Amino acid sequence: MTSTAVAAPSPAEHPILRRVLHAIHLGHEQGFHFPGNFLAVSFDHVAAAGSVTTLKGAPLRADGSADPVGLNVLADLALAASIRAALQRDTRLATVNLQLQLTGAACAGPLRAVSHFHGFLRDTTGQQAIASVSIRSGEREIALGSGTFMVLDLPSGTRAPVLRAIDLPADADWAGVALPAPAGLGDSDAAIYAQALKALRAGGADNFSEAFWGFRTRTSTQGASGTLRNGAHLGNRVGHVQGGVLLAFAQATAHAALPGNWPVSSVTAGFVSPGEGEQLRARSRVAHRGRLTAVVRTEINTVVAGRPGRRVLEVLTTHSLRKEAAAET
Predict the structure, then answer these.
(1) What is the pTM for the complete model shown?
(2) Would 179 be classed as within a structural domain?
(3) Structural domain containing residue 44
(4) Mean pLDDT for back-to-back runs of 10 residues, the chain (329 residues)
(5) Which DSSP string corresponds to 65-126?
(6) What CATH number corresponds to the domain at position 136?
């Protein structure tokens, strides 16, 4: 089934639209989800002991830090890559928990994650695999973390993803890349393309990432709240909001609960249920705010008839006061 064409600038003339169409094409070619393809997550070496996964398509922020969506998606996928290398059959991995410690180091280019499989949780009914990851930018360690994943059977009709190295074409090389025509996209892919057009019109190229993922946060007297309208651009291979995207949404809401000079320094997340439905809602509450550190508790729920439904994610973030702000107090 195809959708009607969306009025837009020519994809050949806009680098972001070229990347969107290229990611859609990769999804059909290798069975991988859109967030990973759009962010150009490249599986350079897949092994239980030392998988190497790089992030080639996420922008750096103005302060030199990594884009939170890109960093979290990379961490989630890199951890899973080392586990997949140890499994004997095609499976689906569901994130059970994930911890990240951020170092605060500035980025100097693409992020490179090295992950290791550490075996399975013992004496449990479900098979849960454990992995660790270190993420670097050049010689600087940006983050280190660990995660546990439930090993599940692939749903009927779902292809196992092909974990392979990819490269974003250079600006001069796009002419030789076959991109799907916007007018011929199926409904799900057309929705992704339409979201990209909407984000370009709303935020322009400089603020595309924020507008595209669609996190909406608002500070409140007790913390902050956030809403996220679900869509194909956020989904994993079975249509749930991808785990790294969910985690970035929680972090964005937690960050809104404090002044801007309190960046996130660590994340501990428990994944409770799939991120599905038309809309998700986050709520953050400041559990502690001291002179130098703060703690924020965030929960994400589905929305049913305008009210919170199933719990999707529980996150505890720590925040550290920036040096310049501490000097002023």
Answers:
(1) 0.91
(2) no
(3) 40-169
(4) 45 80 89 91 95 88 81 96 90 94 90 97 95 95 97 81 84 77 92 94 85 95 94 88 96 96 96 93 97 98 86 98 72
(5) PBPHHHHHHHHHHHHHHHHHHH-SS-EEEEEEEEEEEE--PPP-S-EEEEEEEEEE-SS-SS
(6) 3.10.129.10
